[in-house]
Amino acid sequence: MPEKETLERAREDAREGKAPSTQAGEFIREEIHHVREEKHGVRNPKQAIAIGLSKAREAGVNLPPPPKGTPSAKKESARSRPKRRRPSKRRSRATLGALRKEGESGASHRALSSQARKSSRRRSASSRSQAARKAARTRSREKSRRARG
């Protein structure tokens, strides 16, 4: 279950009309924070991201389903069936136990940085450029909004 502050920050992003991926970023940030404070570990940054996205979907963020064939896709498809039972206490404990045995280096600055570079390399130059321009626009708009308010 996500923390109250995380849910509130995500709702605020939704009210401000920000993209679902931005709203989901709050959940991913929370997950990385959990790993860094040693609540549990992850094998790699992708796992922390997947857990965060899963929590975001549970909380109602309008995200596309996970890629087919991934472990989270199987979990999500089972979850989306209409008749939802309470989650198995044993399985939840087992999952958390397995995560606790994993390391914390998957949420290090270095690991996250290399993950970001890898994922950006998969995108086209024009797509990256467009994202940068949009970020600059949003930044300038946010500055002027804060100056007024």
If you had to describe this structure to a student in words, what would you say it looks like?
The protein is mainly alpha-helical and 149 residues long. It has a domain at 1-80. The model has no long low-confidence stretch (mean pLDDT 89). It has helices at 4-15, 20-36, 45-58, 71-79, 89-101, 109-121, 125-148. Helix 1 (4-15) packs antiparallel against helix 2 (20-36). Helix content is 68%, strand content 0%. It has seven helices and no strands.
Brief summary of the model shown:
By secondary structure, this protein is mainly alpha-helical.
Mean pLDDT: 89
Q: What about the largest sheet?
A: none
Low-pLDDT windows of residues: none
Q: What is the terminal separation in angstroms?
A: 33 Å
Encode the helix/strand succession as letters: HHHHHHH
| Coarse shape | globular
Helix content: 55-70%
Proportion in β-strands: under 5%
Q: In angstroms, what is the radius of gyration?
A: 17 Å
Task: Write down how many β-strands occur, each being a DSSP E stretch of 2 or more residues.
Answer: 0
Count of separate DSSP helical elements:
7
Category from helices, strands and their pairing: mainly alpha
